[in-house]
User: Fold this.
Amino acid sequence: MDAGPAIEVRELTKRFGRFTAVDRITFQVARGQVFGFLGPNGSGKSTTIRMLCGILTPSAGLGRVAGFDIAREPEQVRQHIGYMSQRFSLYGELTVQENLDFFAGIYGLWGPRASDRRDEMLALGGLAAHRNALARDLPTGLRQRLALSAAILHHPPVLFLDEPTAGVDPIARREFWDLIRAMAARGTTVLVTTHYMDEAEHCHALAFIHQGRLIASGPPGDLKAAWQGCLAEVAVEAPALIRALQLLQRQPETREAAMFGAALHVTLERAEGLPALRAALEAEGIAVEHLEPVVPSLEDVFVSLMAREGAP
Assistant:
């Protein structure tokens, strides 16, 4: 692997007939970085990953992964990456150890080297006590760790994780991200897609994609710092929450308003507009429990970006 970026994308494009799935996106991922690739379903995330893995040929633009051109050197790309999809690519009728032995053979690992690497993965994933269990009998969190262990058996410098924690409980998600951070600390570059904004906070940098276009990118702190306007959290009694949302969305002071857990988050141009929002709610008989400025989260950034793009 050369000394340049682990992943480099310039004007990368993928068309399927008249439909443009990925539209001239450009970004870089430094070596040892955890890079979050975010966007709604159908935005082009998986298509981009398949191009970067050497599975799909780009229609236009350039891409390099681990120093290899994704269009001209797809086989070399595939030899230097690990890939974990949303659906765990495991054999349920094989044990944990048998799955790892099988994937070791696929990656060309044999003899003591394969055994050593397998045992290292069992330890890293906390799977040693389950080595003789059938993969189909494992809880979802352990199957996820096994799938990750299989993807990194050959010690790839670049790892792609496509929605790896979908449907996994919060504790298992936290444990999974501990593994990701440990790998990145050892120099592995990780590109991960996720719908969980709390997971995105763990990334060194993020890119938001919508309808195939890159609409924002940068470190999480920079994206939140770039927020313009005043963000307010509004809490009302639960039965009035939807009515309050609809009312606030109609106010001239409101730029955006959306559900945020059991409360509402409302974006205004200036904090001076907050009293008018309270007055509008109280005029409709909606008791305000609290209405105050808050620091925007990544979820607020994501919602704002989608609203700006006209997403439903």
Observations:
- The longest strand covers residues 19-29.
